[in-house]
Amino acid sequence: MAETLKKLDELVALCKRRGFIFQSSDIYGGLASCYDYGPLGVELKRNVKNQWWKSVVQMRDDMVGLDCSILMHPMVWKASGHVDKFADLIAECKKCNTRTRVDHLKGAEGEETTHHSHAEVSENNLVSKICPNCGAKGQFTKPMPFKLMFETQMGANAEDSMTLYLRPETAQGIFANFRNVLDTTRIKVPFGIAQMGKSFRNEVTTKAFIFRTREFEQMEIEFFCKPGTDEQWYEHWKEQRLNWYTDLGIRPENLRLRKHEDDELAHYAKGCVDIEYKFPFGQGDWQELEGIANRTDYDLRQHQRGMRSMTKWFEAKRDTLKTPLLGEDEEYQKGPLSYFDDEAKERYIPYVIEPSAGADRGTLAFLVDAYAEEEVRGEKRSVLRFDPRLAPIKVGVFPLVKKEGMPEKAHAIYNDLRKGFPCFYDEKGAVGRRYRRQDEAGTPFCVTVDGQTSEDNTVTVRERDSMDQIRINSDQVVHYLREKLQM
Prior knowledge:
Low-confidence stretches: 112-119, 317-331
CATH class of the largest domain: Alpha Beta
Mean pLDDT: 88
Shape: globular
Helix content: 25-40%
Number of helices: 15
CATH topology of the largest domain: BirA Bifunctional Protein, domain 2
Strand order of the largest sheet: 4-12-13-19-16-15-14
Number of domains: 3
Strand content: 25-35%
CATH superfamily of the largest domain: Bira Bifunctional Protein, Domain 2
CATH architecture of the largest domain: 2-Layer Sandwich
Number of strands: 26
Radius of gyration: 26 Å
Structural class: alpha+beta
Largest sheet: 7 strands, mixed
């Protein structure tokens, strides 16, 4: 039986060796928590995103797409609450000066700190906690908030510049465009808006390869529904999103749904669950892969208030605004971000269900779950058993030797195949070693041209997982593989 991944280090080594993921700025010593996707990694991540888009947009009639700017008006982040509230509680070790998120600190028995509000956490709550860097117990400063948004400046000079933020999430661009989408499409509530894009957070605790980084890519949905139907849609999206991972090959035993307790719910959330994956961190830790939240009507209400507060915003020079946002009234309920239901003849501000996934975390989970080691004829074989839809390379094409017309025939097959899907041509080294290289790349099939090809026009097709080989006519290769790859 094949062994699965026990330690993340094994996967990190394979990713560098086979060109999936590199440390960013590696020639200068690297930049912490920043990574570059190599030739195989960029294809894998693109396939993950393409399958997500196909599932949530292409195959649904109640979803449209969006691609918003990373830089947005600072009022977006004031209205959303990020300027005032988007921070992590951190504590500094008095012995080694390492700063760590309070909710990531563990005690001697490995328990995690429970979630608390900023006011509740003190040095007394951390007396049993262990510094992850030096191992000191209970040697922490008083917890303090650490702002997570990156700031930048827009303007020709200091006097005219405006403070902007690199977006910490893609969701707010969707809310800011809610009215634009309603006005330019024929879509009606219930409906969703999907977006993929880069987000940035000045995280304190990173590490764990690409699981937590300061620059990352999100795949988010904001699904707008009538108040009162939100629980139904909440259940719908929990089921849909969990099934998406298993359909693409994640083993069900490595996934679970974890409901957020009341003391860890975000201020805007009526309810939230995490889809967690059992990553090989430490002895195997359950970590968030995707969050699914019932955000109620919080965001649309906040942005509607923000629109009415624009004058006060500029008068207060943006960052020093002290005036509270306006309260609820009849005029507000009929504002520009409300929705009029033609059939029910009523107006309301929709509730929102938000499935929010990370493209990088998803890519890492598919890598971990696909990884296997086994012994084949006395030798160790490392293989990535990707679902064919995710595999970076679909087919490897080899001539057995570089003579007797085999390279020419193999090139002809390769050129036919790559019109339909990504392929790789290789004529260097023993064919067994070439198979092993493609196994580590996760390539589902390999086609080999050999001496028999010139006699009966057949080639060998080798399947990655079973290593079984069959012979088929070279004229049927494209059709055969297209059916196997579901492409």
